[in-house]
Each structure stands twice: as C-alpha cells, then as structure tokens.
Design a protein that fits this description.
A five-stranded mixed β-sheet has the order 2-1-3-11-12, covered by helices on one side. By secondary structure, the chain is α+β, with helices and mostly antiparallel strands. The protein contains 30 helices and 32 strands. The radius of gyration is 52 Å and the shape is elongated. Helix 9 crosses helix 10 and helix 27 runs antiparallel to helix 28. A hairpin with a 3-residue loop joins strand 15 and strand 16. Among the domains are: 75 residues; 73 residues, no CATH class; 96 residues, Immunoglobulins (Immunoglobulin-like, Sandwich); 84 residues.
C-alpha cells in the first residue's frame, strides 16, 4: 500500500470536514424553516379565529383581518366576505378619489383608463373573431357577376364574369414572383401574415400625415381584402376591416395555406384591367403569351397593375403604365433581385412596343357600360367607403337607361359603315357624344370614343373636358340677360369695335362687324362682341347662379367669372354636361342631373339603391322658350346645319375653341375644338370633335371641324329625334312686331319699312307700348295760297315742322342717351344721317295738280313756293304734301286749293248768319252748331262743311266765360275761328243788350 504524505492526509481530513459542515448547515436550515412554518401556522389559526369572531360581532372590522391574509387564504376570505370587502374597498376608493392627493387621482384615472382600454380591446378582438368571414377557396374565387339591364328591362351585359385562367405557383416565372414581392411585400416569405415593422411604420406615418406612408398591408392581408373582406379604408369600418384582415392573415391564411398557395391566390384573384382577372389572362391580353413566358419588363408591368389596374392600364394610359413599370424595376434592383444593368435594359423598352393590341371581343355597348360603372362607383361612395363599390368586383344587378336602338346609331356612326354617315379622315380623330332625354334627364346613349381597345378606357362623353367655345353663349350671356334683365329676343345690340374691361380687343370669328342687331341674330350668328357686351350687363352673382344651375362651373378669379367665359374660354365641359344643360332649355327651365342608372341591387344582401336625380328650377320657362326660339331660328335660317325631322322643332348651337398665336404659326389653319349641340322637345345631343393629341400629321383644322360637326349632327338628329314634336309656348310669352334699331324698343308703325320690321318674343308685361314715329305720317304745311296771272299759278305755304327722324339735334341726343348705342354714339349718329340721306333724301314738299279728275305729280321742292302753268279753260286744284325726296310712304295728307281763272287766293272769309245787330236771343236762335251760325268761304267758294269751326265767349272786360251761361241784359263778344286747307280765319261778333 502506498504511503500517504502528511499533506495528503490533511487534505483528505479537510475534505471530510467540509462535507460534514455542509450537511450540518442544511439540517440547521431545515429546522429553522420548520420552526418558522409552525409559528406561521399558529398565527394563521389565531387570525382565522379572530376574523370569525370579529365578523360575527362587528362587520366593519372584517377589513382589518382580511388585509393580514396572503395568497390563497386571502382569496378565500375575500369570497367569504366579498360583499363587505367590496363595499368597504369602494368606500375607501371613493374617499381617496375625492380627498386624495393629485397623484392619487391621476393614478386612479390612469388605472381606470387602462382597465377600460384592456376591456375594450378584449371585446374588439372577440368581435373581430366572431364576425370574421369564412374563408374557402370557392369564396376566394368569386364567380358572381354584375348584370346590366337596358331601359326595356333586357339584360345586355354581365361584368366580372370568369375572364380568368388560374395558374399554379410552379407556372409563375421567378421574375414575376420577385417583382411582386419587391413591390408589394418584401418580407413576404419571412413574416407570418403581418409585417410588424412595416405596419408600425405605416401607422406612425399616417398619424404624422405623410402621404407616402403606405398602408402596411402584406400580400396575405391583400388576399384577405380582395377575396374575404372589402375595400373599406376609412372610419370605424376601415379599422374593423383592417384588423379582420390581420386576424385572417395570421390565424387563417398563414395557418391553413403555404406561402406558395397564398401567392397563387394573390396572382389569380384580382382585376388587372381590360376586363381580365389574374396574371395569366392579363399576360395574354397585354402581351399575347402565357405568364410563364414573361420577361423582366413584362413581369414588372404586370406587377405594377395590382395597385391600380385602371390608372396603369397600358392601353388607356401608356405613360402611366411605363412610369409604374419603372418604379417596379427600381424596387427589384433595390432589393437585389436584378442588377442595375438589367434594370436599365428593361427600362429602355417602351411599354407600347410590348403590347399586342386589343382584339374585337368588346361588348358593342362598352362606352355606355363604362359610363354606368363610373356612376355606380360614384353613387356608392360613403364616408365609410370613400372609394365606392366596383361592379366588376361587387356582384350587383343594375337597371340602366340605355336605349339600344339609339346607341346603335352612334355605334354605326363610329364604324363609318353607313354611306350617309360621316367619312372619318383617319383613325386618330375622336368624337365624344352624349344623348340625354328631355323628358326625364336620363342618358339614353353615349359615344365614349372611337376605336376603343379596352373596357374602362378614356370616356370622351363623360370624362374629357374641352373649351365649349360659343356653345357657352346661351348659358353665360344671353340666358342670364333674358332671365334677370327681361330682355326680349329683339333687344337691340351692337356688333362693332369693342374691348374687354381690362383692355384687349375682342374680335369675331370672321374679323368683321355686323353693326346693329337683335340678340336673336347675334346669338344665332354667334357674334363674339355682342356676347361679351351682353355678358357685362348682368352681375357676377347672376351669371354664376345661372351657369351653376345648369351644371356648369365657369372659371373664376377671386370669385369673379372671367370675361373670356363669355365666349367659352374656360377649363371646359364634357359632352354629357353640355347635353344636360341644353336639355334644360328644351324642358322649360328645369335642370335634371343626368343619370345612366335607375336602380342598384346588391346580389349578396338584396340591398337596393334607387336613383332619384337632382332637379333644379334653373330659369323661368319664358327664358327657356326664348332661347329655344333663337336657336331654332339659327337652324331654320340655315345658319347652322343640324338636319331636319318632319314636324319637329330642331334648335342648335355650334362652338369652336381657338388656340394661342404660337400654335397658329406652327399649325396652319388650326383650331382647338369643334362642338355642336342640337336638341328637340325630346332629346338633346351634344357632340365634341377633335384630336386627343396634337401632332404635325394630325391636328384639327377649321374646315375639318366645321364639316365634321355638321355631318355628325345631321346623321344623329335624323335617326334619333322623334317626328312631329314642337316646343310648347308658355302663357307668359307674347309676340310683338318691333321696329329694328330702336332703343328702348318701339313697336313698328304702319309706315315702317318691311326690312326694319321683326316679330319678336317678349315676357308678358314687357312689351313696348310706344310706337316708333321715325316713319310716321308727316305733318302738313299750312296757309296754302295761290296767285293766278294769266295761267301762271304760284303756290305759297308756311313750312311744316322738320321731323325728328332727320333732325340732327334730336338724333344726337337720342344716340348719346341710348343704352345700346352709347359706346358708339357718334359713329351710329353719322350712320343714321347717311341712311337718311340715302333712304329719305331731303325733306320738302310734293306738289300735285288735279284737272278733269286726273292727278299729276308736278314735282318735289324744298322751298315753300311753287310755280306752274295751267290751262285757263280748265277747273284746277292743287295739293301740297310734306314729303321726303326719296321715301314717299309717309307723306302728309296734304293741303288742297282750288284755282279759278284770273283769281288769286285771298284766304278764308267768315260771314255771320245772324242780323247785323245781334242780340243774345238772335244768337241762340241760330242753334248750337257753329256751322249754323257762320258761313266759311274760300275765294267765294262755300267751304263751311269742310271747315273746322269753333268759338269762345268773352265778357266786356275780356274774361272768357262758358258760352252756356250767357245771361240777358249783358254785352258779350263771340270769337269764331275757322280752319280749312291749312288756312285759318277769326271773326268777332258783339252781342248787344238791345238794338235800337
């Protein structure tokens, strides 16, 4: 046995002692614990006895013992005495809340808030779980379609129906998967349905008001939104939808399906534009190939469609689609899926060069369908659902106002197949057309554009705005003037040099002036200067009210409508807005908001929305009727070519917008837009014609625009308008014949020339009462006499008053004070003088001789004397009439004088028929008639019966007295006055008291 060293022995002993000490220490600890436990148990027993004793004797002392317990014992005591414990706790809690420190109160409020928040959170989570929809593959691939019915109740289209080919994950090219992940959810393969970091960033970003914060949705959450929930994004509905998506993503989709299966759902479910669903169908529609064959650039474009398929549709918005594709390529490069070189190479290829073009599978009513979809989305928008419901993704039944027969007319026009239709000059020219029912305001047909390649593409009838040109004049100018100023269709207006209020010359389209016009002709002929002048006569508020009542929003500056709006120079209107406004005139002044949908029914819930269009009394029926008559005049006088329909009133207005001088220099004969709006008592048809983009090869010329609108409108009018339909005249409208050029307006006189007469329309109570005296019968000269010297007769007379029609002093005052003429007073004064010289000639006298029953015109003179020879053996009379040298229609009645041989005219003579010494009795015995009291002669010829005789009675002091009150015994003077043939004579008879 090996001998151990002292050191080893000590070490071994030390080791044994250490173990022994450890054991002893442990035993001591156990004893100590047992003693402590025993003491605690004793205390608990004593406390238990104490609480029993105290609670039976005094219930208020229970809290003292209750507080001393711990753990499970405290719980047992609480439940045994819970009513008293809670009651006492509440008393203390209320006391502390009422009398405690501020710190106590704040802590209590925070605690209560946290408890309430926690409770609400639990309730909210339970609600989300309970209300979450069931998820199944059948539900994910919704097949319910939206059904559209026409005005006759016939189905004409189903939307959202199975234009989808599902593909598996294995069929997807890796480049498409990479593009989607890089763009929509970069950590898709790492998270469990929610990307906490991205979601939190989006939440905080939105709280800070950042528009680029994003929504924080993962691909899984987007699948939930697209197929299981909905698109609600605002309000409490948006919050519930968001958390429902989170719940379904984390606890349903991610638990039930693999990442690859979720990716399949994502690429197969959504609408990707042009009526396609899923990437396979989209790939074939846009590129003509299977999805598995997509290259980098094509995959990037498809990936970009998921965010907004309509906005990034390459057929509709190629520039937007290319920009979005480039964004996807940048994201792929950032996340390392492609290199910068690959990115730049893909970017260099234009999107349009990749497209295969759209086939001819579109529904023939695609334009109207697009209009319906736009309206349904707009009408289903709410605060909780600000984006509205898309009929392509939400199953509905929609009753529309489509009239297939009338829509077919537009389709035939677009196709250019009718030999009587418009021959389109190229495939680039476009036309937007809207047909609105006058009766109820419904949209019966639309021309959304030629050569449409896809559904939901640009709608030229409802979405594109263009300067309305002169089609704005009834709305901005003449309508308000008739409505608020009570103008008639015959209101005098001037077409001459004029400027805008702020300076700058305004010109007519032909750079000419028409001078004095009525507003009927000014509007029918579309004169710009009268339009601006009329615009300036009404207030800003009146114009704004009138236009807005018709659904138009003219351009303003600080609330003031710009004067360029008078001729249509503002941001513009759509053909639908134009048709709706003009339908208001045809309807008698009531505006009805145009609509293409009458009822919407949700297939899943049965909920319905009935469309009740907005109606506004935009103007009086009298104003509407006068506009109708003016624009009808434009058609019937062949100023505007709009076609004709048997027995039907057709009214129309054209419009042309201009471009700036720089473009006029660059493009010869260029105009901006060409419009024509034609309407009847049944329909209003608005047509815009032009080019979407201006190029050297394709731009709108004035000749093309005029021909196009004329032929298109004629084609539509003759096939759409009903026969035998007339505008109803309101009771408040009256006709009156006026003399043109008068201001204020005056009625035509019997002598007014035909060319200056016009029958116009007035509101009842505004017809002028003054008859024009411009062509009135002239006043006679006076005191006609003659001398006869052996057959040489000399006639003399007193001059007649110069008529106002040629009186320059009167005319100067007339034009200066006229509202219509005042801007151009001197110019039109000189024009009137020139007219008078050319039409009337000099003012003077026409002399006639009557011999043997034959009247001979001896000639015209401006003098008051006339000499001629007569046959002394003949009985001759002469007539002198006031007259114009050239215009004879208003000659005076004339003075007549008989000439005898060797005699001279000595004027009139009055002979009293009573005795030479006349008394009152003798005077009265002759009767009351003056012609019984005196005899009137001219040149010894009795002319009493043809004379005008009167008399007055005076007293001796010269005071005039009523002749019926003469009394006997008083002297009176009786003064007789006789008038004949321009001559006048007086004679005084003295009535004496007695005769000796």
């Amino acid at each position: 046995m090996e001998k151990k060293t002292v050191k080893q022995v000590k070490k071994k002993r030390k080791k044994k002692n250490t173990k022994k000490n450890k054991i002893l220490k442990r035993i001591a600890k156990i004893k100590k614990y047992l003693i402590k436990y025993k003491r605690n148990m004793c205390k608990k027993k004593k406390k238990k006895k104490a609480i029993k004793k105290r609670t039976t004797k005094d219930e208020e002392l229970h809290l003292l013992s209750y507080k001393e317990y711990k753990g499970i014992d405290k719980v047992k005591v609480f439940f045994k005495n819970r009513k008293m414990v809670i009651s006492d706790d509440m008393k203390k809690f209320k006391k502390k809340l009422k009398y405690g420190t501020l710190k106590d109160k704040v802590l209590i409020i925070i605690m209560l808030g946290l408890v309430a928040l926690f409770s609400l959170g639990i309730i909210f989570c339970v609600y989300i779980i309970i209300t979450a929809p069931e998820v199944s593959e059948k539900r994910l691939y919704k097949s319910n379609s939206t059904v559209l019915y026409d005005v006759n109740g016939n189905e004409f289209k189903r939307l959202g129906l199975e234009n989808r080919e599902k593909v598996s994950y294995e069929q997807l090219p890796q480049v498409l998967v990479d593009a989607i992940v890089a763009t929509e959810d970069s950590r898709f393969f790492q998270h469990n349905g929610i990307d906490i970091a991205r979601f939190s960033k989006a939440v905080f970003g939105q709280l800070l008001g950042r528009s680029d914060a994003g929504g924080g949705s993962t691909l899984t959450m987007q699948v939930s939104k697209n197929a299981a929930t909905d698109t609600t994004s605002h309000g409490i509905g948006g919050i519930i939808r968001k958390f429902t998506d989170i719940y379904l993503s984390v606890f349903v989709f991610e638990k039930r399906y693999t990442k690859e299966e979720i990716m399949e759902f994502y690429v197969n479910i959504p609408n990707l534009g042009s009526g396609t669903y899923g990437v396979e169908q989209a790939s074939k529609t846009y590129f003509g190939k299977d999805v598995s064959e997509l290259n980098l650039g094509e995959a990037a474009m498809i990936a970009g469609l998921f965010q907004a398929p309509s906005a990034y549709n390459p057929y509709v918005n190629p520039k937007n689609a290319e920009a979005r594709r480039n964004t996807v390529l940048n994201l792929m490069c950032r996340h390392g899926y492609i290199t910068e070189e690959e990115r730049d190479t893909a970017k260099s290829v234009p999107v349009e060069s990749l497209l295969v073009g759209k086939g001819s599978s579109l529904n023939k009513y695609v334009g109207f369908i697009d209009t319906v979809v736009e309206e349904v989305i707009e009408r289903t928008k709410t605060k909780a659902n600000p984006t509205g419901d898309d009929p392509y993704s939400t199953s509905m039944k929609i009753w529309t106002t489509l009239d297939p027969a009338k829509q077919d007319v537009i389709n035939e026009l677009y196709a250019g197949t009718n030999k009587n239709g418009y021959k389109w000059p190229n495939d680039v020219a476009q036309a937007g057309i809207a047909v609105v029912s006058v009766e109820d305001g419904s949209i019966v047909a639309v021309g959304a554009g030629r050569n449409k390649k896809t559904e939901r593409s640009l709608n030229y009838a409802t979405s594109t705005r263009h300067h309305p040109g002169s089609t704005a004049k009834p709305i901005m100018d003449y309508g308000p003037a008739i409505e608020y100023l009570n103008w008639s269709t015959g209101q005098t207006i001037i077409d001459d040099d004029y400027t805008y209020t702020g300076g700058g010359q305004i010109k007519n389209f032909d750079n000419q002036h028409k001078g004095v016009m009525t507003i009927k002709n000014a509007l029918a002929q579309s004169r710009n200067i009268p339009a601006l002048y009329t615009f300036q006569q009404t207030t800003n508020e009146q114009k704004l009210e009138f236009a807005s009542n018709l659904g138009w929003k003219p351009e303003t500056s600080s609330g003031t409508i710009l004067e360029t709006c008078s001729i249509g120079g503002f941001d513009g209107v759509t053909p639908l807005e134009a048709a709706a406004a003009y339908a208001t005139f045809a309807r008698g002044g009531t505006y009805i908001e145009p609509y293409s949908v009458t009822k919407i029914e949700y297939t899943e819930t049965g909920d319905t929305i009935k469309v009740t269009p907005k109606k506004i009394t935009a103007m009086s029926e009298e104003t509407a009727y006068m506009i109708n008559m003016i624009l009808k005049h434009a058609v019937t006088s062949n100023i505007i070519g709009a076609g004709s329909v048997s027995g039907t009133d057709i009214a129309a207005k054209t419009g042309t917008s201009t471009v700036d001088s720089a473009l006029k220099k660059e493009f010869k004969g260029i105009i901006g837009d060409s419009w024509e709006i034609a309407y009847s008592p049944d329909y209003a048809i608005a047509t815009w014609y032009g080019y979407p983009q201006r190029t050297k090869e394709y731009y709108l010329k004035g000749t093309e625009g005029g021909k196009a609108r004329r032929e298109i409108t004629k084609f539509l009018v003759t096939r759409i308008m009903k026969k035998n339909s007339r505008f109803n005249r309101p009771n408040g409208i009256v006709e009156a014949e006026i003399e043109l050029g008068t201001d204020p307006l005056e009625l035509a006189s019997p002598a007014t020339p035909k060319e200056l007469r016009s029958v116009e329309y007035f509101k009842k109570g505004t017809v002028p009462t003054t008859v024009s005296n411009r062509f009135d019968t002239l006043s006679d000269p006076s005191n006609l006499k003659f001398t006869n010297n052996n057959g040489v007769v000399t006639l003399t007379w007193n001059a007649a008053t110069t008529p106002n029609a040629i009186n320059e002093t009167y005319l100067r005052e007339y034009f200066t004070n006229s509202t219509a003429y005042k801007v151009w007073a001197e110019k039109y004064l000189q024009q009137r003088i020139a007219y008078n010289n050319n039409t009337f000639g000099s003012f003077g006298y026409q002399v006639y001789m009557v011999a043997n029953g034959i009247t001979t015109d001896l000639g015209f003179t401006t003098n008051t004397t006339f000499t001629t020879n007569i046959n002394t053996s003949s009985k001759v009379s002469f007539i002198v009439k006031s007259s114009y040298q050239k215009f004879k229609n208003n000659q005076s009645t004339g003075l007549t004088i008989n000439v005898t041989e060797g005699a001279s005219s000595n004027g009139l003579n009055i002979e009293y028929k009573g005795s030479s010494c006349s008394t009152l009795e003798n005077f009265n015995s002759l009767g009351a008639n003056p012609k019984n009291k005196v005899k009137v002669t001219e040149n010894e010829t009795d002319v009493t019966d043809n004379s005008t005789i009167s008399y007055v009675c005076k007293k001796e002091d010269g005071a005039e007295i009523d002749c019926s009150t003469l009394a006997s015994g008083v002297n009176y003077s009786i003064i007789f006055t006789a008038k004949y043939n321009g001559l006048q004579k007086t004679k005084t008879i003295n009535l004496k008291n007695t005769c000796n």
